[in-house]
From TrEMBL:
InterPro entries: Glutathione-S-Trfase_C-like, Glutathione-S-Trfase_C_sf, Glutathione_S-Trfase, Glutathione_S-Trfase_N, GST_C, Thioredoxin-like_sf. Pfam families: GST_C_3, GST_N_2. Residues 3-80 form the GST N-terminal domain. This is Glutathione S-transferase. Gene3D superfamilies: 1.20.1050.10, Glutaredoxin. Residues 83-219 form the GST C-terminal domain. Belongs to the GST superfamily. It comes from Syncephalastrum racemosum (Filamentous fungus).
Length: 219
């Protein structure tokens, strides 16, 4: 048994950042094992090779972000899940981010762009190839804009910070680090304002180093 749980992941991973921000917000000390997706280290903790994984204080390993989130709530409280109707809204947001945002924006726009940049494909061709995926991403963001407009803010589900904010922020940090940022901001201006509010938080600033946005800012 150890005094602190351990997070296994990578700073560039959006879901890893979500879990780390939650622990920091709740004041939970943790240890860190660096593991790239599908690396040998990642597979030691998750047979599918994905990150993050989470090792509890008694040595039990948990993988998949939802399962880790559930454990955190059971161990350190469910304040980030809110309650009543707001809890339903939080789950709706986290489901949307885990499905549509991650699949169609991170894997649909960001990762293809990064791969094409690495191959030194000309910017004009990159934009042409991404035209359809960017249109789809902007549609998703416009839907999120509508969901956000239904709340009284300043957070995605109202007056209190929740898992919804912690899930969405790392994904949009990647998006806003790309040339597609301007289209994303136009599609969802209130979401952009929310993002700027969130990035001032200590948990955002303390988890910024070595993220995709951090590394791209150095280029």
């Amino acid at each position: 048994m150890t005094s602190s749980p351990t997070v296994v992941g990578a700073h560039m991973s959006t879901f890893t950042r979500t879990i780390v921000m939650a622990l920091q917000h709740l004041g939970v000390a943790y240890e860190w094992i660096d593991a790239a997706p599908h690396s040998d280290t990642a597979r030691q903790y998750n047979p599918f090779g994905k990150i993050p994984s989470f090792v509890t204080q008694d040595g039990h390993t948990i993988y998949e972000a939802l399962a880790i989130r559930t454990f955190i709530e059971q161990k350190w409280g469910n304040s980030l899940s809110l309650s009543g109707d707001l809890a339903v809204r939080v789950n709706q947001w986290t489901s949307v981010v885990s499905d549509y945002v991650f699949k169609d924006i991170i894997f649909g726009v960001c990762k293809p762009r990064f791969a094409m940049e690495e191959k030194q494909i000309e910017e004009g061709e990159i934009k042409q190839r991404l035209q359809g995926p960017v249109e789809k991403a902007c549609h998703i963001l416009s839907v999120l804009e509508g969901l956000f407009s239904e709340t009284k803010g300043p957070w995605l589900c109202g007056a209190e910070l929740s898992w919804a904010d912690l899930y969405l922020f790392p994904c949009l940090a990647d998006v806003y680090s790309t040339p597609e940022a301007e289209a994303a901001k136009r599609a969802a201006p209130q979401i952009w304002e929310w993002f700027q509010h969130f990035e001032k938080l200590d948990i955002a600033q303390k988890t910024y180093r070595n993220t995709v946005a951090y590394n791209r800012a150095k280029i």
